[in-house]
Design a protein that fits this description.
By secondary structure, the chain is α/β, with parallel strands linked by helices. Helix content is 34%, strand content 25%. The chain contains 13 helices and 18 strands. A hairpin with a 5-residue loop joins strand 4 and strand 5. The radius of gyration is 22 Å and the shape is globular.
């Protein structure tokens, strides 16, 4: 394992205890760094095991340095999907342009990573499973803070006391709702809904993305390798979030089918596949924007605190960097109030810059008007005839501090 620069001094005082809610990406990453700095860490996860599968995700910029310091960069490079082509189609299925993914989304070839979500989760879990207590098939019911710590009542009935609690439980965080109130206060809806599911690869696609557009609608088929399975995406502009459909899978299928009725290309077959899919994931494109990320002895990290939306391609990277920065602050300051303040101070600008990428992402992939779509297509054709020779970053950067010795 590569060196992290972390002090291995053992504290002579009693270990501080931390409960992390969520075992996806930011949770295990935070658990790793906290354990390395002398905390006793417990992770509670409502699923029965680490979740495999899932859509491809990006690890970019500063987050690449985080996984390097964790020692898993070689494994993730081996798992790199290495998409080779992104093809854009007109409404009738004819080709607009075919480019490298880097030409469209930015990024630095040979440095940024794209991996299956399950591969990253598996690597993070393997790092901490022998050193961290995991409570699967369970979740937090209530939190009761006092000067002594946080008394947690779990859904299983257990009652435990921890020095600190961290919500790493995603965009629809129960920890955040328990602490700060309903999600509606912090959710910035970006005007899109999306449906994700898998379907058979009957098209012979390999290491590529094919994206069909009409104004306000997009359908994509993504082959992450030579597999017989594709990731299918159906995305559409919706001025107001469809609140009722978010709670009803049947209504979600009906809404998507209605929106895409009469669409060309392979969309009718995608709708049929969506009807039969047992892994449909439907949600809105949105961000979480909060004035503060902690209250008392409880803090939030990753999507629970600052989800940037899939339009930025930065959700995973923010989760990894945020986990590092929070753990570093807690290792630097014995007092949790000072640690949480430092975490917010050092992450705020980085989060804001990356959340601001959402508008550009929407304009490139999902134009909502005929004019905007024509402008996007002209830009793509120009990239084919005059490709940029200069790599442009797909993200904003943050200089990571060396990990602090134990406070």
């Amino acid at each position: 394992m590569t060196s992290t620069g972390l002090s291995m001094n053992v504290s002579t005082t009693a270990k501080r205890t931390v409960l992390i809610s969520g075992a996806s990406i930011s949770g295990p990453a935070l658990a790793y760094w906290l354990h390395r700095s002398g905390f006793a860490v417990t992770v509670v996860e409502k699923a029965g095991a680490p979740r495999d599968g899932g859509y491809p995700i990006d690890v970019r910029g500063t987050a690449v340095e985080v996984v390097r310091r964790m020692g898993i960069l070689p494994h993730l490079r081996d798992a790199h999907i290495d998409s080779r082509r992104c093809t854009f189609l007109n409404a009738d299925g004819s080709e607009v342009a075919s480019l490298t993914p880097r030409a469209v989304a930015g990024g630095v070839e040979g440095e940024d990573l794209e991996v299956r979500r399950g591969d990253l989760v598996a690597n993070l879990y393997a790092l901490v499973r022998d050193d961290v207590e995991f409570l699967f098939d369970d979740s937090i019911d209530t939190l009761d803070q006092s000067e002594r710590g946080v008394e947690v009542r779990l859904h299983s009935g257990q009652r435990r006391m921890f020095d600190l609690v961290v919500g790493a439980d995603g965009m629809h965080s129960h920890t955040r709702e328990s602490l700060f109130g309903p999600e509606e206060q912090f959710h910035r809806y970006l005007g899109y809904c999306f449906a994700l599911f898998t379907m058979p690869n009957t098209f012979g696609l390999s290491h590529e993305l094919v994206l069909w557009n009409t104004p306000g609608k997009a359908a994509a088929l993504y082959a992450v390798g030579n597999n017989d399975e594709l990731h299918a995406f159906l995305t559409f502009h919706q001025p107001e979030p469809p609140v009722d459909a978010l709670r009803d899978p049947a209504a979600q299928r009906d809404l998507v089918a209605t929106i895409f009725a009469g669409a060309g290309w392979e969309v009718p077959g995608m709708i049929n596949a969506m009807r039969d899919a047992d892994d449909l994931f439907f949600d809105t494109a949105g961000q979480i924007r909060m004035p503060r990320w902690s209250s008392g002895r409880v803090a939030l990290v990753g999507d629970a605190a600052y989800a940037p939306s899939f339009l930025t391609g930065q959700g995973t990277s923010l989760a990894l960097v945020g986990a590092y920065m929070l753990a570093n602050a807690l290792a630097t300051y014995r007092d949790h109030t000072a640690a949480f303040a430092a975490y917010e101070r050092d992450m705020r600008e980085f989060v804001a810059m990356n959340q601001a990428l959402a508008d550009n992402g929407a304009a490139t992939l999902f134009p909502t008007t005929v004019r905007a779509l024509e402008q996007r297509n002209t830009m793509l054709r120009d990239l084919v005839t005059m490709p940029s020779t200069t790599a442009r970053p797909a993200h904003s950067a943050l200089t990571l501090p060396d990990f602090a010795p134990i406070a």
